[in-house]
Structures are given as structure tokens and as C-alpha cells.
Amino acid sequence: MFESNTLRRFDKLETPFYYYDLRLLDQALSACREAADAFDFHVHYALKANFNDRVLQAINAKGFGADCVSGNEVKKAVETGFPAEKVVFAGVGKSDKEINEALDLDIFCFNVESIQEIEVINLLAAAKNKKARVALRINPNVDAHTHHYITTGLEENKFGINQWELPACVDALKASDNIELTGIHFHVGSQITNLDVFKSLCVKVNEIHEWFSERGFVLKVLNVGGGLGVDYHNPDSSAVVDFKKYFEIFDRFLERKPGQEVHFELGRALVAASGSLISRVLYVKNGLKKNFIILDAGMTELMRPALYQAYHKIDNLSSNTDGLVKYDVVGPICESTDCFGKEVELPATSRGDLMAIRTAGAYGEVMASGYNLRERVRSVYSD
Ligand code: LLP
């Protein structure tokens, strides 16, 4: 878990803070890199999962591309050193300003999510006398079997172009002189742990790919998105995701044509395990029915439990008594959903104990808010 010199260091620091284990991050990045290279797959890191500078630098150093969902993410990626020709820009609501800036930066590709967006990008590119490369984000109507708040690939979701719209989409492309179609793009959801979902996605991609081939389109890129889940229950024993097993599914089931590139957009699987939210116990309230541990970190620092009923393992780093006690572990924010875990079994816990909320490297720090005028959460690194 944490080495004793790390714990001694924590003791001297003001809490709460995010702690990033850069060695563990490097292990995950290397494992992914190696597995992707073995199949000649291209990985774009989804910045939305974590855009902490040190984390981004480590990812860029490994040669991954960048998957961005706002103009600021595009700028951040380029400023960090990701080459523009490895930057993709997705999102259902790109503003004209964001599109213009991305055109100026000459990014690799816009993942477009509607017919109207094709028309707008075409107009803006024409005004600059440029050709915008686009991939169509198509809604494959594949159920990701994950929490409904992080499911994106069903027709009831706002994302992507539905299959029945494809003929109109092709007409729009033909009418757009300043657009070049590079490929098709899919993303069915996040924290997917049932790998069969990706098999179903491959079957759908093959079908849609064929539809385009029949109409004479040569697609350079098949982008299958991200979504690979992590094991929140065992942060130590399965810290690095089995990337090989994941990529093998696509190698086996996705039909690619010679020279065609397969792109992935992984976020969580690369960064989740390397981050923990470290917090101190402010108070312990022993009630008749429940015991509460009140931390100095709350939903303002880590939103996932409040928003998705997400599980994060909680460890007491200061106490290791034999007998376990059940506690509700809560934050200081004036909201009942500000709770990190109910009936969590922990060693007897006291005011001042240091606690770690594990596997918080993805969608943790980036989703922090200033609600209740809380201070911006700090970050600390293993080196
Ligand atoms: N590509 C697209 C188009 C996406 O929408 C996403 C995530 C990704 C790639 C990266 O997915 P990943 O590999 O990280 O699963 N805040 C939520 C997760 C939201 C995911 C949004 N889209 C959470 O904390 O669980």
C-alpha cells in the first residue's frame, strides 16, 4: 500500500490532498504501451480523466496521443507537448470558438456528434481555407452494463449520430468541401468490467464499417473509444489493468482492412490506481445505531460516490487494531450525499487518523469543485 517513509511524509502535510504514485502510474502506462504496440494499436489518453500537469507529462512522455472534450483540453494537450497530429477533439457541444482554435492548431481530427456539427465545422473550415479532418461518432446502441450515469452508447443517450441518420450524414459529407472523413468513432460507456461488451461493440463496428465500404468510403481510422474499467475493490492486488486481454478482444473480433489504424481513448484504466485522496479524521461520532467518521475531505474533493454511488476502498493509515468497527465515512459538506462509504469496516478510528480513499486518480481531482467555498485541493507526488 504506502511505504513507511511515505506515511511519515503524509504526517507532516496539511490535508486533504491527492497523492500520486508516479511509479505505479508509469507501470500502468508501460503495460498499456507494450500491449498496444504488440497489436499495432494507437492509444489517445482521455484528458478528462485527469489533467494534472505531472500526470499529463508522464503520459505524454510515453508517446500516447490525447483525446480532448473542450477547447481548453485541446490547448492543454498541445501546451504539454502532445503533438497536434495526435490530438482528437470530441464532445456533443463544441462552440464555434473551440472549433476555430482547434482548426488553427491543425489537430488530427474532430469526432463529430451530429449532422449540424458537420455543417458548422465545414463553414468554419471554409472561412479559414482549410480542410477539417473528422470522424463520425456513431451511437452503436450497445449496452455497456455499467452505471446508467456513465452509459453513453444507447439511443436514449445524447451522444453520437444514430444509425438511422447515417444516409443523411453521408449526404451532408458529400456537400461539405472543407471536410475530410477519416474514420468512424464509438464510445459505449465507462468503467466497463464485462469484456463481452467490447465484443458486442466490435460486431457493431464491423457492421457499420461494412455499410461505409459498400458506399465507397475508405476509412483510415476505426476509433473504438475507451471505457475499460478498473478494480476498485482490490487497489493493491490488481493495480495494473490487464491491457493485453482487452486489446486481444479487438484484435480478434474487429475486422480491419490493410493499413487501417485502430484507435483507443483510454482514461480511467491508465490513471485511476495511481491516485489516492488523503484526508484526516476531524471527528468520530459514536451513535446508538451508527458510528460516523467525519473527514476533512468531502464530495468537493471526490465527487464520484455522491454522483454515481461509486465504491472506493477506504483505508485507515494510522490505526491497525484487530477488532473492526463499522462506520459511515462522511465529509464536511452540507449535503447528505457527502458520504464516501456506509457501514465500512475499519480498525477503531480516532480524531487525527490519516485515511486514504483509494483508486481516485481518475475523475477525482478533475471533478473537484469550490462548493461551500472550499479550497482547491492540493496534490503531492511520490517523488
Ligand atoms: N472517449 C469518450 C468519447 C468518452 O466520453 C470517455 C469518457 C472516454 C473516451 C474515456 O473513458 P474511460 O476510459 O475513462 O472510461 N466521471 C465518470 C466517468 C465519465 C466518463 C466520460 N467519458 C466517473 O467518474 O466514473
| CATH structural architecture of the largest domain | Alpha-Beta Barrel
- Helical content band: 25-40%
Q: What's the CATH C level of the largest domain?
A: Alpha Beta
* Major sheet characteristics: 8 strands, mixed
Instruction: Give the bound compounds.
Output: ligand LLP
Shape: elongated
Whole-number mean pLDDT: 95
Report on the architecture of this protein:
- The protein is an alpha/beta fold.
- It folds into 2 domains: 4-17 and 273-381, Lyase, Ornithine Decarboxylase, Chain A, domain 1, CATH 2.40.37.10; 23-272, TIM Barrel, CATH 3.20.20.
- It is 30% helix and 23% strand.
- The protein has 11 helices and 17 strands.
- It has helices at residues 4-11, 22-39, 53-61, 71-80, 96-105, 115-127, 166-174, 196-214, 243-253, 268-271, 304-308, and strands at 17-20, 42-46, 65-68, 87-89, 109-112, 132-139, 161-162, 179-185, 221-223, 261-266, 275-286, 291-295, 314-316, 324-330, 339-347, 354-357, 378-381.
- Strands 1, 11, 12, 13, 14, 15, 16 and 17 form an 8-stranded mixed beta sheet that branches. Strands 2-3-4-5-6-8-9-10 form an 8-stranded parallel beta barrel.
- The protein is elongated and about 70 Å long.
- Bound molecules: ligand LLP.
- The site of ligand LLP has 21 residues, from β10, α10 and α11.
Question: Quick summary of this structure?
Answer:
By secondary structure, the chain is α/β, with parallel strands linked by helices. The chain has eleven helices and 17 strands.
Task: Show the helix and strand layout.
Layout: H1 4-11, E1 17-20, H2 22-39, E2 42-46, H3 53-61, E3 65-68, H4 71-80, E4 87-89, H5 96-105, E5 109-112, H6 115-127, E6 132-139, E7 161-162, H7 166-174, E8 179-185, H8 196-214, E9 221-223, H9 243-253, E10 261-266, H10 268-271, E11 275-286, E12 291-295, H11 304-308, E13 314-316, E14 324-330, E15 339-347, E16 354-357, E17 378-381
Parallel strand pairs: 1-17, 2-3, 2-10, 3-4, 4-5, 5-6, 6-7, 6-8, 8-9, 9-10, 12-14
Antiparallel strand pairs: 1-11, 11-12, 11-16, 13-16, 14-15
Helix pairs in contact: 2-9, 4-5, 5-6, 8-9
The structure holds ligand LLP.
Ligand LLP binds next to strand 10, helix 10 and helix 11.
